[in-house]
Fold this protein.
Amino acid sequence: MHRALLDLSTHTIRLADETDFAGWRDAARRLALAGVQPEEVAWIVGSGGAGEHGPPQPPVGKSLTVPREFVDRAETIICHSDPERFSLLYRMLWRMRDEPSLLKIASDPEVRCSEAMEKSVRRDIHKMRAFVRFRKISEGEDERYIAWFEPDHFIVERNAPFFVRRFAGMRWSILTPCLCAHWDTGELTFAPGAEKRDAPADDAAEELWLTYYENIFNPARLKTNAMQKEMPKKYWRNLPEAPLIPALVAGAETASREMIAKMPTAPAPHHAKLQARHWPASASIQGDDGADAASIVELREAAKSCRRCPLWRDATQTVFGEGPDNPRVVFVGEQPGDQEDIAGKPFVGPAGKVFDAVLDEAQIDRRKTYVTNAVKHFKFEPRGKRRIHSKPNAGEIQACRWWLDKELALTKPDLIVALGATAAQALLGEAIPITRMRGQVVTRDDGLRVFLTIHPSFILRIREQGEKDAERTRFLQDMLAVKEFLAN
Ligand code: URA
């Protein structure tokens, strides 16, 4: 009897606002438990309206369990601008009662659609972090920084804590057409959307930024398609540096030829010191720093725009760690080499081949481990057409620890293997005599255990074959010790 009544009624669920995830989850759970079909439910947002049937009381004693992955995805999709998102999610929830592995069916149209929506929201979040530009205004005795941004989705509330963490000591406002976020160094508040003209046009600091941008623009590395993919034109109108871009792009070819003609064969010896002094680790102020990345995928995405030290300028790309999110062991090398820099993957060049072969012999499956480097950009000196590997200095290792620490915090391995002195220094914060301490396990203050060994490239550098073989055998023994450690 009760069931027949439900079949006839349309359930109109009113959510408090566009991103009312708690409201959606509660209603969806009740509806599903009461057996209300997706076609019987209409989802609307905002206050007002009468004559609606809210979610029914769920039958006593019944419960509903869905995979965590679905809840996480739904929480992100709620921020999408498509009004159909609430229905799509409920349809998926409904199906999941009989198909608990629904999310694993990659060919399913609803799963594909939800994946695309999730990706789109995440991308929008990333773009907001990368392209928000604050301008200073006076507010009585104080100053406030105002930014204008036009997101594709309802991401302001979700993204605001990132800006609070990043600019905790500044009073700032981010104005958008749908919602504005205000931070007064103690409280975060939200207000209805604004118009672009409510944000100031420029300020004194902007001139400095423009000069800086013109100077760091590297014509030799210009890839217009990639640049527009990362920085779509729609964002240009709100970027102060945008007006410079067409002229810089137009002159890139000539400038690039001039640069090659002028290129020094070796950097001035005082260069590294000057860079270290003028480029503190905090220099990464434009772009996402990955502080709240919830997975290696998000962290890797954030690291693409890393500017924590100057190495990004000459490298092709950030070479981030690779492997599952929950490995038992993390291997840490020094920095990507020439081939890694081009491939964008760690340990794929000559040292990587030795590493792979020895892991194979030790029967450690590399695909189940996480492999990364202490420094994520290739550092080299040009010599003719070749790029000669150059050791990262202490400042560069320190700057890149930001990413290494986060990789370790997310992967939480049982054991970290430091491949060589640079990795050991990055992991333990001090210079370690590897030849004396190899094979030992050092426990860090945070409880993570670090196994010390040589870097595989050390084997490659030995000329005398007998010595080379002996060193390779010792490295294999170290890897067998790692395997044994993990077995216990
Ligand atoms: N050497 C390293 O330390 N890492 C790599 O990725 C390649 C070579």
Remarks:
- The pocket of uracil is lined by residues 333-337, 340, 346-347, 349, 351-352, 373, 455, 457 (CB under 6 Å).
- Residues 96 and 102 are 6 Å apart (CA to CA).
- The first strand starts at residue 11 and ends at 15.
- The chain has four domains: 5-125, 132-198, 206-262, 269-487.
